[in-house]
Amino acid sequence: MVIESISSFLSKHLKMSDPDHPASEEVLRWQINIYLNYFFTFVLVLIVGLFTGKVIGSLISMMAFIVLRKYSGGMHLRSITVCTILSAAIFSVIPLIEISYVWALNIVSAIIFLKYAPNYAGDEVTESNKLSDIQLKIVCIVVVMSNMIFNSSVLALTFFIQAILVSPLFNKHEEGVSN
């Protein structure tokens, strides 16, 4: 896929230019994948947002998702390119949907995070790993319930989608396993 090819090309050239660098080519490729995912998702969201007139809502959705995902984990796709395209599509469509039951969606999302967060794939190393599972659950619930103040359809839908991606519908969550 496109992003994987770019990451592979860049990581090979970076490693060739500094063979003594402590990071392996695989680690460099993984990190470049992450940066390119964020960059291309941002660009796609911006472009689609300009066409729909929902740039701010789309960017709010993207940022809220990133913040919540940092603490909750969730499903990973096998291709970073597919992830980028699908993520941009979701963040761009969410602001086009107006709901009147924001509070209910917030509560459902909070319950899902209470039950299933954090749900890491095992390869994620983030600052949030310094927190216990219960602390991560609390952060997720506080983030979601803060939308009771904002009453935003964009945030409610974004949080709900992330909650679904943490749930067993998309993940095999092993009870009792600490991350």
- Gyration radius over CA: 17 Å
Write the element-wise H/E pattern from the N-terminal end onward: HHHHHHHH
Determine the N-to-C terminus distance: 30 Å
The largest pleated sheet is described as: none
- Give the count of helical stretches: 8
Unreliable runs: 173-179
Q: Helix fraction?
A: 55-70%
- How much strand content do the residues show? under 5%
Morphology call: globular
What is the average per-residue confidence, as pLDDT, rounded to a whole number? 91
Assign the structural class, choosing from mainly alpha, mainly beta, alpha/beta, alpha+beta, or little secondary structure: mainly alpha
User: How many extended strands?
Assistant: 0
Which features characterize this protein?
single chain; disordered C terminus; 179 residues
Summarize the structure.
The protein has 179 residues and is an all-alpha fold. It has helices spanning 2-17, 25-52, 55-72, 80-93, 102-116, 133-145, 147-150, 153-166.
